[in-house]
Amino acid sequence: xxxxxxxxxxxxxxxSSKNPLSFKYxxxxxxxxxxxMEEILRFSVAYWHTFTADxxxxxxxxxxxxxxxxxKGMDLAxxxxxxxFELFEKLNVPFFCFHDADIAPEGSxxxxxxxxxxxxxxxxxxxxxxxxxxxxxxTANMFTNPRYVHGAATSNNADVFAYxxxxxxxxLEVGKELGxxxxxxxxxxxxxxxxxxxxxxLEQDNLGRFFHMAVDYAKEIGFNVPFLIEPxxxxxxxxxxxxxxxxxxxFLQKYNLQEFFKFNIEANHATLAGHTFEHELxxxxxxxxxxxxxxxxxxxxxxxxxxxxxxxxxxxTLAMYEILKNGGLGKGGLNFDAKVRRGSFEPEDLxxxxxxxxxxxxxxxxxxxxxxxxxxLDDFVTERYSSYTEGIGLDIVExxxxxxxLEAYALGLTEIKNSSGRQERLKALVNQYLLExxxx
Length: 440
Fold this sequence. Notes:
single chain
């Protein structure tokens, strides 16, 4: 069955094309520094927002028109697989991602849930035999069902901890079976609402134990892929333990998990943490912990996780700057953890949204690459910190001084001169490179 009969394969047609169902800037075959755009950007479709979301919000029921929603139960799950691989093929994307609950409905028992998952995984596996699209990562949904009202691995209820462990065990097995390149942990309710009823130490210790069990089982079954933690500061819980990259890194170091984990960084989650997207990418990069990216954006006028498709070219440029400086994303990718707006309810809108996001990151890639090639920012930063390349600055960096020596040096200073950071000039340069790329 064809679910997107009005959409043909999306091709690159260039900036002058008037065809809305075409790429204007994303040319998967274009080579940049020895790699194609497709190889660098590693785009992925998020199963949950694309095939299961119906547009429901706190004030209204779903609005999405989806031809597969005529089905129910397992028939619906199977129809979604068919629709998914049709969209993957027409978008020509290399990857997709899912939660277990996205692909198969929960049964009345865990055993029934396993059976449902096995049926759909078998179907996905058959489709993957003839599709170029691979599984970037999978994960377990441990936040939707009421059993997770107090968390999953951090729940006060040991039965919930055990149930959550069983879900992740199954998820690791599914990831191995489908050839996933990563496995993600998003602690949707791993946090607290009030400290009045919370044993924070026990909850965090249990989360550390949980992660070590996951590492051990992955080794046992030979599922040797990066584990990724996806930071988020709030929503749904008031304070989540994986607040941002810095908090997550401290947690991993405390529980001796940094060897096995990296971060899956989402742009909108960075906003909720009070950071920019590029800040979170930078913190991960300079600590060798940048694993993958959930590509979306938030709305500065709204204080929650809007998960919009990325169209902010300044943001995609600075994001790609960090990613290129990282040497790429390795086994990670740019997963569109994004949903069409509630008013964009027709099936064709799914293609318009992904095209916009893919073109936006393609532009960001080209601009960032040129900025790096021309050393526009590198040269300025090098000059700005040049005082640490000689004299007392070099002694500081090399650990050859102490407070007494520094005091003696400072007492001899007659004047301290600072130079301008030229923030506005640098922003103007980024704008210039961006506009030059768009004008070509």
